[in-house]
Hints:
Elements (H helix, E strand, L loop, with lengths): L1 H21 L8 H4 L10 H28 L1
Helix pairs in contact: 1-3
Amino acid sequence: xxxxxxxxxxxxxxxxxxxxxxxxPKQSGLSSGMGGGSDLFGGKGYEGGLIRLxxxxxxxxxxxxxxxxxxxx
Length: 73
């Protein structure tokens, strides 16, 4: 059981790194996030899918880290 969770944990970590690196940078700095960047939490097409996948992998990474913490005790 613990080995399967470790493998899923590593795959989630690699997924986060991969999907974040595949996204194109906005190059607008911090000011656009505060001043009404309309597509801050989503997007359309290819970019929206990458944002969604990186969010899912990030959430899975956190959940699996908590599961590993409880299993190891």
